[in-house]
Amino acid sequence: xxxxxxxxxxxxPSKLFKGRALRNEYYAFQVAxxxxxxxxxxxxxxxxxxxKVTCFNTGGIDADGKAFVKKVNVTKGNVQPLWFGVDxxxxxxxxKRSFTITITPQNDKPQTILVELDIVxxxxxxxxxxxxxxxx
Length: 136
What we know:
4-stranded mixed β-sheet; 9 strands; 1 helix; mainly beta; 4% helix; 3-stranded antiparallel β-sheet
């Protein structure tokens, strides 16, 4: 968490994430928060344009089916990967789909990222649980 990967430095900061997913896939991806100038406190994540997105770092549902929230802080000079999952239904039409992620620290301005997914016209039988299985 105290180093930026070289690949991220070479690509430069971006407010756009592009990915490619299959129908019936649970698509996981990562966005990083870098606390360049100060500590970032109590980071909140919200979504617009897709109700099937989860940020695993900030909360979820426990084994008893109860919702929980996790507090995320990032110390100045550190990077915090945020992991997301998007449920792509089997009935999803192929093509480009987009939604936004807004990351809001309690003590700084919000940052919004546009997520663009290219949904391929193939069905992933196992939802992505086994990387060795081929799509239909």
